[in-house]
């Protein structure tokens, strides 16, 4: 289902064929945590932002409104009115980062909802059932994401358990996809490599799960506190052990520069809350680096955020207006910044794909990184 | 500039020709307090909601970002990117309702900004200069809006001062419109009748200012705590003394039922924060009355807010999705409700205009009022 179209160095230009359409890679997935992009951005807006894939969070949707509710309403695509691909994470990361009082056992994890404190149990089977109820295009395996500073012995045990969990995920997903009333019988499963910053554990884990013939492979447990150099080192150590004929997904990454570095190292899929979170705080991305739209110097600035940008915000509104809205705490200010940022990320990925096709990714990356640094000069 | 096209009873169907286009009346003006509709609604969105006129607040824009800033940026139309008519209020109402520690003198009012407490003086000339800097299509006269429970003697004194202020507004507006570098030399001025709930003071005031040949006349100081019946009584007492060949504007009103009652009594212009404020709280208008979208009964409801509604929300999203967004405190939930409500108000006004043209306003009003009451059954 993944077709490698072209390689430029290690950078891959590919296509993932799904039941909800073809994903051109490398791709940035736009984060719609609770089935909505934060910043009052609707799925209708996403159509104007060159968005290919929306990403939603299993844990959040399980606790509210409930995956059974979404299933009864026809699944996540119908619920949020989005007919293109949706990837759902497994809930693992949120269980380990958001939920309180968790207890990890071989079966899975017991934890308290961050909404109302009620007890929830989630293991590989539960995660697959929730994602099957959501009917996403791509489901992620249920894994443990150990801290980047965890002890080696803990990480090794955790990774071994994550492998056993992955086998259970695969079995359960196969069963669910075969049920007569399943929402998406072609739901794909991506496995996740873990191993904190221990290269040998990462390599070993990648090798083991590569043999399982999954629809794609993710690198998890990065961008959780380690340095950028450590992150790049782990990507370099891991990617060679993942199948070339499957998409590679670097979870939760990152800045535009992080993405360019990871594309260079062979990564196809990305997701990150930065464009929407930064947008809500008035921080916008441009070809010359980030801008803080609260800055007083934009008070009388009638230019768009970025000259020549084709996003719905820059085509119409000035820096001065956006700054005013943000200062006045008008929701519209946040919305306009988020629209711009998502367009920026999605457009950069378009350019990345073109650059790889034309064997000039190195040149493109250099040009972009030099541009981003201009704002700090 | 106002053309009375047709009358059905006292209900007027008219047109106000302005430098920013023709306004079809009766009309509901969409409130953009600080040059933005609350609920992350942009002026681009307004184009899809059949909006004819945006209304912005002089007081708010004077304190932030400052009317001089907006003037330097080319005026309010350019600032918020809206080339259709804009009405600005005079700041009077906000000075009396929002600002702290105000002192009223013959010259004007001294008060403290609600943002940072700094002292501001505003009188008729200041209000006109601010509105001239904003370059709105229609400026409102600077008036005092006494409480609906104020003593008769106070109200009489206040109304007399408001008349003297109106003369000063007219003189200053004329001067400003004649300046070479004025933004909108065709800026219109509407006078405001006051008089709390004293019919004789209202009638006398209406007669006096009707002689001043202004571009339009507003009924101010209503919907500030009096009953609906008192409000309708005052409208009935005032409208006959205002010129038929000028538009009549009932400020800050109101519910859909209030608007229908006032149209019947000869009112042309309306504005109210209800559709946007209620929308942000998940309260939406339908032909069968209001709905609270937080209600648990919508959890699995895949219908739109209102079947057959052509608004951007109902064309795409379900009650269940909107309820979920509101419960999850996603800004998108508020936005979708505000879009629906503004469309509802603007569409009702379209129907009102058609009903008057076809001499069936009474019938239309009866049908609407009966519909609105269904939700409480």
Can you characterise this structure?
The structure is a homodimer of 377-residue chains. With 377 residues, chain A is an alpha/beta fold. Chain A folds into two domains: 271 residues, Alpha-Beta Barrel (TIM Barrel), CATH 3.20.20; 89 residues, no CATH class. Chain A is 40% helix and 19% strand. Chain A contains 14 helices and 16 strands. In chain A, strands 4-5-6-10-11-12-13-14 form an eight-stranded parallel barrel, surrounded by four helices. A three-stranded antiparallel β-sheet of chain A has the order 1-2-3. A three-stranded antiparallel β-sheet of chain A has the order 7-8-9. In chain A, α10 links the parallel β13 and β14. In chain A, α12 packs across α13 and α13 packs antiparallel against α14. The radius of gyration of chain A is 20 Å and the shape is globular. The first copy, chain A, starts with a strand and ends in a 5-residue tail after the last helix. The mean pLDDT of chain A is 96. The interface between A and B is large, with 42 and 41 residues. Chains A, B: One of its GO terms (molecular function) is metal ion binding. Chains A, B: Its cofactor is Zn(2+). Chains A, B: This is Queuine tRNA-ribosyltransferase.
Instruction: Please report the total strand number of chain A as a whole number.
Output: 16
**Over all CA atoms, what is the radius of gyration of chain A?**
20 Å
Mean of all residue-level pLDDT scores of chain A: 96
Secondary-structure element series of chain A: EEEEHEHHHEHEEEHEHEHEHEHEHEEHHH
Briefly note the structural class of the backbone of chain A: alpha/beta
Total number of helical segments of chain A?
14
What percentage of residues of chain A falls in helices of 4 or more residues? 40-55%
Which overall shape of chain A is indicated by the principal axes computed on the Cα atoms? globular
CATH architecture of the largest domain in chain A: Alpha-Beta Barrel
Query: N-to-C terminal Cα separation of chain A, in Å?
Result: 45 Å
């Amino acid at each position: 289902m993944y077709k490698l179209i072209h390689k430029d160095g290690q950078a891959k230009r590919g296509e993932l064929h799904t039941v909800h359409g073809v994903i051109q890679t490398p791709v940035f997935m736009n984060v719609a945590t609770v089935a909505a992009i934060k910043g009052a951005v609707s799925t209708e807006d996403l159509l104007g932002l060159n968005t290919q894939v929306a990403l939603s969070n299993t844990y959040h949707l399980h606790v509210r409104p409930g995956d059974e509710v979404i299933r009864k309403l026809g699944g996540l695509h119908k619920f949020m009115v989005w007919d293109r691909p949706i990837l759902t994470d497994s809930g693992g990361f949120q269980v380990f980062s958001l939920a309180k009082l968790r207890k990890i056992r071989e079966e899975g994890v017991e934890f308290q909802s961050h909404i109302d404190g009620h007890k929830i149990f989630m293991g590989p089977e539960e995660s697959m059932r929730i994602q099957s109820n959501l009917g996403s295009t791509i489901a992620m395996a249920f894994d443990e994401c150990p801290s980047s500073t965890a002890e080696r012995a803990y990480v090794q045990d955790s990774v071994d358990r994550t492998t056993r969990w992955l086998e259970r995920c695969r079995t359960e997903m196969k069963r669910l996809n075969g049920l007569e009333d399943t929402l998406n019988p072609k739901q794909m499963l991506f496995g996740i490599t873990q191993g904190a910053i221990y290269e040998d554990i990462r390599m070993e884990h990648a090798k083991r799960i590569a043999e399982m013939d999954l629809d794609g492979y993710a690198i998890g447990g990065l961008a959780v506190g380690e340095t950028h150099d450590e992150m790049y080192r782990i990507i370099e150590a891991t990617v060679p052990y993942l199948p070339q004929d499957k998409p590679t997904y670097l979870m939760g990454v990152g800045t535009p520069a992080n993405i360019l570095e990871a594309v260079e190292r062979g990564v196809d899929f990305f997701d990150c809350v930065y464009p929407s979170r930064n947008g809500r705080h008035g921080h916008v991305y441009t070809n010359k680096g980030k801008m803080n739209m609260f800055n007083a110097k934009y008070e009388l600035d009638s230019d768009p955020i970025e000259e020549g940008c084709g996003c719905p915000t820059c085509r119409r509104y000035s820096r001065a207006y956006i700054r005013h809205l943000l200062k006045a705490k008008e929701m519209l200010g946040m919305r306009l910044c988020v629209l711009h940022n998502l367009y920026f990320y999605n457009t950069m990925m378009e350019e990345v794909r073109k650059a790889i096709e034309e064997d000039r990714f190195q040149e493109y990356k250099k040009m972009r990184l030099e541009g981003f640094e201009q704002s700090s000069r």
